[in-house]
Write a structure and sequence with these properties.
This protein is of the alpha+beta class and about 350 residues long. Helices cover about 50% and strands about 10% of the residues. Helix 4 packs across helix 9 and helix 8 (about 255-265) packs antiparallel against helix 9 (about 270-285).
Amino acid sequence: MTMDAFITENRQKDREILSDYNLDLELINMMGLEVIDIVPYRNVFRIITQKGMYSLKRVIYSKGEMDFIMSAIDHLKKNGFQNMMEYVRKDDGSIFYEYDGEEYYLTEWVDGRELDYLNPIDLESATHLLTQFHKASQGFEPPVIPDSRNLLGKWTENFKERIYEMNEMKFRALLKRGRTEFDRLYLEFVDMCLDDARRALKLLLDSPYEKLVDKAKEEKGFIHHDYAHHNLLQSFDGKLYILDFDYCAVDIRIHDLGSLIIRNMKKTGWDIDKAMYIIELYDKEIPISSDELKVLVPFFLFPQDFWQISRQYYIERKDWGDRDYLDKMNTKSQYTISRR
């Protein structure tokens, strides 16, 4: 079965992930499914069967990371948080199917619509759901926290490392003989972004960040770490779901809140009123301290998007087309200008 026959959207990251699926009849039979159709959707396959619909996903993380993710989901359930898809378990209680050296798992598929952050009602629902998730996450004590999932106390280190990488990428672009349009655009904006990054680092160092880290260690919560609109679903009967816990990690909760605010402000020309509206919604259910507000400032200022697309181009060397890279860099550059 050829993957390209199923992949119709120009979504580079999802295409890369789906192309590695070994979607063979033997795997489907192993799951005991009578398949009617298989449809790609983002980074999963929707399996339509006689008994209903499921989401098929390939495991791309280490065993330690998957144990952490499953422990986090189980912890949420124990604390009464039910706004997640159910995993399909085998007779022995496990969820993983091993095939051709890879592991796969199924979750239930719920039809519905993605939340729209430009819709005030959806935004309110998303913020409320985030507070409920953060409350349920507290008291999390997994047997092991993989280093890749422990972001607590690492913001300063990460800011410094990303500033170093932006400088390194700048020199690479400067030393190039035949510069691409991407190189030229990067060099046009990199100094501005480096200035923002250094200011963000100074603000972080002068902030009560360490106090928040100490508090988070006491509360023992975790974050979703990818609280995007496409990971929030409202079923046709009105129930809200958080999807895709693949990136969940231990960190201060305002990482999630700050990400939600940034995702909204990108769509509204960095409207400060939008940020305040989300903060007020969240604060009604989980009070936000003045220390947290101070730490949000460097989080907003750091040019994360610019650094990320640049890193994908110069360091990771993602196999994307020049046009796609250029379009993304144009978008990220405009974020930098409008955010100032």
